[in-house]
Amino acid sequence: MPESFSTLLGDFYTFLQYPRRDIIRERMSFSRFGQIVGLHYLILIPVMVIMSVLSGLIGLEDLDHSIDDLMADSSMLWFAFLLVIAAPVLEELLFRFPLRYRRGSIFILIFIATVFSYYIGSAQLPPMHELLPAESVSEMEQMGSDISVSALLLAFMTFSLGAFILLLLSFSKSLLAQSSGYIRAIYPHIFFLTAMIFGFVHISNFSGDVQWYAIPILVLPQASMGLLLGYIRLRYGMLSNILLHAVNNFVPAVLLIGSQAATSI
Fold first, then answer.
1. What are the pLDDT digits (tens) for 194-241?
2. 18 CB burial (10 A radius; 0-12, 13-18, 19+)
3. What residue spans define the domains of the chain?
4. Mean of pLDDT values over 124-131
5. C-alpha to C-alpha distance for 243 and 237, rounded to whole angstroms
C-alpha cells in the first residue's frame, strides 16, 4: 500500500466500517509513523475542542485531575517514566494485545463482563463493608474511597467463570475452532467495546462529583484514541501502538514538567 496520508486515512475509515482481527499486517516505516501521529492529532484536537465545549455547558470545568496529584507526589523523572513508558506499555498490553487472537477476543469479553459486573454491583448491591476490618473501613472513609465488597465479589465470580470457560476452550481445540465463527461475527462489537472501556476506565483520572451523563464527555478523547490504537495494533503491530500512546502522553508530560519547573524558579 502506498505510504500517503490519504491512503492511511482511507484505510482507517474502511477498517472502522467493519473491524477484523485478521487484517494483513504491514511493516511500519518512519514516514508512516509520522503520518499516524498526524492522524492522531487530526482526530484528537477536534475531539478535545468538543469535550471542552460540552464540559463548559454542563459545568465540569472545576473537576480536579488525578495527574496533578501524581505529579505532586512524584519526582520529575518518576512522573515522566510513569506517564511516557509505564502507562503506554501496561495499557496497550491489557487493551490492545489480545485484539489479534481468538483467545484474546474471549479474554476481552471476560474483562468487559467483569468491569460491568463490578459497576452494576456497586449500583445495585449493598456495599457489605461489615465484612472488612473496622480499621480498613476507617481508612477508606478518610481517603474518600467507596469500594463495594459485594461488587468486588460479583466481579471476581464473573472473572472466575469467564476464566474457566477460557480454560476449557484452550484445552479443547474443537471447541475453540467452533467458537471461531462466533468470535468473527461479534468481533466488531468486541473492538468497539474495547475502545469504550479504555475510555471509561480513564474516568478515574478525575476526582469530584462526576454525574453519570458527564462520563462519556470526559472520556471522549481516550475512547476515540482507543479506536486508532486498536487499528494501529492490528495493522502495524504492538510496538507501533505503544509508541503512539507514548507520544500522546509525552506532550502533556513535557508541558506539565515545564510548567512545574517554571513555577519553582
1. 999 999 888 888 776 677 788 889 899 999 999 999 999 999 999 999
2. exposed
3. 5-264
4. 78
5. 11
